Amino acid sequence: TIQLMNKFFLNLGKQPLANNYQKKFLKKQVKYNLKLYFNSKTKLVSISKRIPSEKMFNNKYPYKSSMSVTMKNSFKILSKEIKNKFNPNLLLEIGSNDGTLISNFKRNQVIGIEPCKNLAQITKKMKYQTYASYWNFNLAKKIKKKHKQLDLLYSANTLTHISDLSDVFKSINHVLSKNGVLIIEDPSLLECIKKNSYDQFYNEHIYLFSAISVEILLKKFDLQIFDIKNLKTHGGSLRYYIKRISNENIKISKSVKKQIHKEKKFGLDKFSIYKKFTINIKKSKSKLIKILKRLIKQKKRIIGYGATAKAVTIMNYCNIDSNIIRNFTDTTPDKINNYMPGRNIKILKYKKDILKKYDYVFLGAWNFKDEIFKKEREFIKNGGKFITHVPKPKII
Ligand code: TMP
Fold first, then answer.
1. 348-351: long-range contacts at Cβ-Cβ below 8 A with a sequence spacing of 24 or more?
2. Ligand 1 center to 271 CA (angstroms)
3. Nearest CA to ligand 1 atom 3
4. Pairing with 360, which of 52, 153, 251, 338 sits 20 to 30 Å away (CA)?
């Protein structure tokens, strides 16, 4: 019945798996249709195609949280806040990646969960207790058996990557103590719609949460949001502080009503806003192509900065190849010298002077614009220009 509530609003075309960087460019690659839906009952925005987790999160996952100073700082600040406000005996992080958050804690204070074996290996080597497993009920049972109940669970940019949200929250419920707190953070649907950042959508981002949809979802599990913070990370994220409904010791902050009010005022609970979004995205696509093609006519050399999964969505949706964007550059070891998934654009190792050879830089990692502009002062001083598509395609 839930299927019937799903309303289609945008097709982002044939897309490869976003993190499937390849040593050689293959003309024939497995692609799928990236289609976006709004569920009028649960208010969840999601993609229709579900790729098995094993195909996305395996022993070769390239993305590392530690690649940006912005994320490292964000996790550091949060870890201080957790210690000061909640002081948990034991913290469990679902999706601990390369340990950027947990390394701020003592080894006996945290447990990491990370299904990507190459990443789990990193925190294991650092002697942090790490379960190299997917977050599901079987694992929750195992953890409860060993560690009893947990008073703090944290998860950033992970739960929206898991198809079965019922299992996710059932499993959280199983290990969370009576007065325990769950903190989750993910890109904000409101910010995405406001910024026309359709590149938030790719095969790994199955859902894009709003406070409205998270509240509806949590109710079924005796959980509720008691505080919300707007973050700048990942182009605008929301951090949800969650408790059991039955726990009356924690007061509910005004921030919750405020955020939900803001989202409703914008229309996130109604289908019409998504139809508007679709129109904006089609415009965004043609404008970006127009800008890039004009620059190519003027013989300008363009490079992409940050070979992000987001940029994969853009390059494939807008059909941009190496005749337009010659290369990308990135600091991530597992992306360097590989091709952008689905495209014949090679990713070059980031070096201090790399931008010198180019006239324009397309911001693949627009979410780290401040950090990148700071780093590339020289290029900007010497007349180098950036191109972004957020909130609208333009040269900056
Ligand atoms: P994300 O937007 O999905 O978090 O990915 C950011 C990507 O950008 C990641 O591959 C690292 C890369 N990056 C750089 O290459 N240089 C930088 O200065 C920053 C901030 C990120």
1. 348/303
2. 33
3. 308
4. 338
